[in-house]
Amino acid sequence: RERLEQEEAQRLSPRAVCAKDTRGREKPIVPCPMRTDFQRDRDRIIHCKAFRRLKYKTQVFLAPEGDHYRTRLTHTLEVAQIARTLARCLQLNEDLTEAIALGHDWGHTPFGHIGGHALDRLMPEGFRHNEQSRRCVEALENDGNGLTLTWEVRDGILCHSGKQFPATLEGQCVRRADRIAYLNHDLDDALRAGVLQPFELPADCLKVLGQTHGERINTMICDIVACSADKPTLTMSPLVQETMDGLREFMFARVYRDQWRQAEEERCKHVVEALFSYYSEHPGEMPEEFVLIGYKEGTARAVCDFVSCMTDRYAIRTYQQLFVPSGFSAI
Ligand code: MG
Predict the structure, then answer these.
(1) How far is the CA of 59 from the centre of ligand 1 (A)?
(2) Gap from CA of 130 to ligand 1 centroid (Å)
(3) Which of 181, 153, 171 is nearest to 43 (CA)?
(4) Average pLDDT, the chain
């Protein structure tokens, strides 16, 4: 570990966070003889139940629709790849970047943003997936003890979206990589689903960003690397930034907010609302770890934690068990 720490100090940019300079953990732990603190955080994240559940959580296209659509897990891996490329090119800490990327979306509910919007209406203080991601690593995982991660990883996870910006450039790599990943792969999945046809894509955006999926990702990454050397924050050139914003608006109008899946959205919303209301009335029927949260932080908080942790298939199965007579069940 000490050799790795020295190597980081020599190799990384002065703007990077070296593992030996971490602001530390909430509770100090004995250092690992082999791995730096950020390498250890990355490994802790990968070995968690919440990480494995990402496999069965929706990105945009509901998971059962086809094997080739992105899930929350493959989205996470694409974010990690893009964020690491940015970090490596800018001589930032790849281990810290990867740890943040692999944990950034743990707080997403079943059924993607549909579930998130439902919980946002049900919770008195609202629901934001980035805050829930941080709650997962600090308070829910590891049987309610949290993962005891470093401050920089927790800051990056909390600030990967929302108004607050990450304190580290490694966190900013993940924030940028998240947008690059989802815009590009959601576009790819929308074409796969036939929601969009290739001729409908905005020609001015393709002219600047590229004609293929790979070219567009490459343009965005190269632009950030070229514009961000020696800057205090990561930036893009005005042309690529404006074009990317234009593509994002197009995606909101045609894919994220369009009517094509409204019936399915209503069903997903109904499942989340029904589960929330059932467990609010019967909190003792939740797994023990959530019953304990209810005692300490109130029933609504505990139910929100339980429901938001669910995968799509767990939510559907639980709904069927609670509300659908077994004689008529599809399963
Ligand atoms: Mg994400």
Answers:
(1) 9
(2) 9
(3) 153
(4) 94
Three-state secondary structure call for residue 71 = strand
Give the C-alpha separation, 303 to 175, whole Å.
29
Q: How far is the CA of 75 from the centre of ligand 1 (A)?
A: 7
- Cα separation values, 55 from 51, 139, 140, 304, Å: 8, 21, 18, 20
The beta strand positions in the chain, using DSSP E, are: none
Ligand 1 center to residue 18 CA distance, Å? 25
User: Per-residue pLDDT averaged across 10-39, rounded?
Assistant: 96
Ligand 1 centroid to residue 321 C-alpha, Å: 31
Nearest residue to 293 (alpha-carbon basis) of 146, 150, 153, 116: 146
Closest CA to 215 of 189, 180, 170: 180
- For 215-225, write each residue's pLDDT tens digit: 999 999 999 99
Distances in whole angstroms, Cα of residue 286 to Cα of each of 120, 121, 275, 289, 306: 20, 21, 11, 8, 8
Give CA–CA dist 69/194, Å, rounded. 12
Ligand 1 centroid vs 33 CA: distance in angstroms? 32
Task: Find the 58 Cα to ligand 1 centroid distance in Å.
Answer: 11
* Distance (Å) from CA 289 to ligand 1 centroid: 26
Q: What's the 1 CA to ligand 1 centre distance in angstroms?
A: 30
pTM of the model: 0.95
Q: What is the pLDDT of residues 115-156, one digit of tens each?
A: 999 999 999 999 999 999 999 999 999 988 999 999 999 999
